[in-house]
Amino acid sequence: MFILGDSYSSTGYDIAGPLPSDDNPLGNPPYPGLTAVNGPTWTSYFVVNYNASVIKAIDVASGGAVVDGDIIPPFSPTILSLRNQTEDYFIPHFTGSHRKMDWDPNTTLFAIWIGINDVIGTLHHPSGAKVLMNALAAYAGVVGELYTAGARNFLFFTVPPVDKSPLAEYYAGSESKINSLKHYANDGILSLARHLVALHSDAWIHIFDVHALWEKVFQDPCTFPETCKLKIFDGFCPLYEKGTSSPDEWKDGCKAPVDEFLWLDWLHPTTGIMNATARMLSEELRECPATV
């Protein structure tokens, strides 16, 4: 399994570090990895906790990633865009005769969760929807590169409800625009998947609607046992945003323990909703052959 995307998926994998193995399916760093959600992200839960068989995962996702930095600049030039992850990491290191690890196109899944930073990055652009359209076209191009390199099984994630994040609330009055851009991105991801199926009859595609799943949590956190502790959905405690020593820590100055907040910081959730995401994804993949 290869994982590409942004901080919602990143575990801090070092391309020069140990490769995944049966005993260490994430390779490096040690479980749960270096994440932005105060605990395991969906990647770690999915590979280690909810796998129906042994899954070995290479996670080249990069915090802050956009689809293509030439279209929507990331907040730092050191951030690897989806294009960078594909062209500078995956293709040189995991394709061709000198690849670091063998993989079978028939049994290897390529999971891509991208678009959050593209939506946020176009918020104040006067032609945000047009720029986002260009990013989605680049997304299709990158998927085409992966296909050419041998990828045949694709898992795409929708953009979650970032219009309900503290960052959206900070930009007062921008929630509706973020919501509109988010839906535009999700429509584009669906179109991308349909186009890929029409173009390549041997490609397997599944779209996981994480947006719908998270909306259920906003409406009723006890929809899933992993999120039933959540009580605060409209803000975060700054004392928690760098992480805590335990998943249920309660720091003086915060109105509740960290695991009762949906949001850890301006844009990242806490680990509980990632746990629910991973479990529901594993159940959906077992039940559904494809969704496009």
Question: How is this structure best described in words?
Answer:
There is one protein chain. With about 290 residues, this protein is α/β, with parallel strands linked by helices. The chain has a single domain (about 1-210), classed as Rossmann fold. Helices cover about 35% and strands about 5% of the residues. The protein has eight helices and five strands. The protein has helices at about 40-50, 80-95, 115-120, 130-150, 165-170, 175-200, 210-220, 270-285, and strands at about 1-5, 60, 110-115, 155, 205-210. A five-stranded parallel beta sheet has the order 2-1-3-4-5, with helices on both faces. β1 (about 1-5), α1 and β2 form a beta-alpha-beta unit. α1 packs across α8, α2 runs parallel beside α4 (about 130-150) and α4 runs parallel beside α6. The longest helix has 25 residues, at about 175-200. It starts with a strand and ends in a 5-residue tail after the last helix. The mean pLDDT is about 95.
Please give a handful of descriptors for the protein shown.
292 residues; alpha/beta; Rossmann fold; five-stranded parallel beta sheet; 5 strands; globular; hydrolase activity, acting on ester bonds; Carbohydrate esterase family 16 protein; hydrolase
Layout: helices, strands, pairs:
Layout: E1 2-5, H1 42-49, E2 58-59, H2 82-94, E3 109-113, H3 116-121, H4 128-148, E4 153-157, H5 166-170, H6 175-199, E5 204-208, H7 210-219, H8 271-287
Parallel strand pairs: 1-2, 1-3, 3-4, 4-5
Protein name: Carbohydrate esterase family 16 protein
InterPro entries: GDSL, GDSL_Est/Lipase, SGNH_hydro_sf
Keywords: Hydrolase
